[in-house]
Amino acid sequence: MTNDTNRPVALVTGATGGMGGEIVADLSRTHRVIATGRSVAALEDLALRTGCDTAAVDMTDAASLDGLGGSLDRLDVLVHAAAVSRARRVDTADAEDWALQLATNVTGPALLTRAVLPLLRRSAGTVVFIGSGAGTRPVPGSAVYTASKHALRGLADVLRIDEAPSRIRVVTIAPGQTDTAMLRDMIATAGGAYEPERYIRPASVAQAVRFVVDAPADVQLTDLAVRPRVEVSRL
């Protein structure tokens, strides 16, 4: 990791995805950003484009998450953008589906947050969980992903209460349908037509993260829904 003590430090997971990459690009204007993901090649490309530091991390590997936390000496912003989605009903989801999605979408963020909590307490930092509309309402045919996003919101809500004495700000940003590879795969699996012009741009989600990070010091924005200008679906 490079050492630039003049800039606040942000850690962004899922940085090689559509949302994560845009969040890294935006925060890099004002922060030293550490971008994580599984693809080394994609991380190298992101570093060339944004000047970020990188760390290849699997959100399902607890030891890797602990190691990442131990490698840092400062942290002001933590953005959990890593996620995986497989469209599965209760009757079609197997143990692997549940294990992968819950580990990536819930357990991994919880363990990484635990690893860096001392740094966030020291800085009275900000934790951003990228949730989903699926975190507040059911999504037909997607029981596992919906359950994981409900759980992630619950995690954020309890963390906010427990860390209030440390003045850590905790927010869930819940985008609606966003033009990403994940959404493309979900719609393809369902046999639907993909219409990118109808969906939120990943850069718009990054702007929502910026809005939260730059909020005045006397407030925290706890829940922020980001919906398409013209609703595609209320699901």
Automatic annotation (TrEMBL):
Gene Ontology CC annotations of this record: membrane
SMART domains reported for this sequence: PKS_KR
Residue stretches making up the Ketoreductase domain: 8-186
A single MF term (Gene Ontology): oxidoreductase activity
Domain of life: Bacteria
Keyword Acetylation: no
SUPFAM superfamilies per the UniProt record, alphabetical: NAD(P)-binding Rossmann-fold domains (SSF51735)
Record key words, sorted: Oxidoreductase
Family: Belongs to the short-chain dehydrogenases/reductases (SDR) family.
Protein name stated in the entry: SDR family oxidoreductase
Protein source organism: Microbacterium limosum
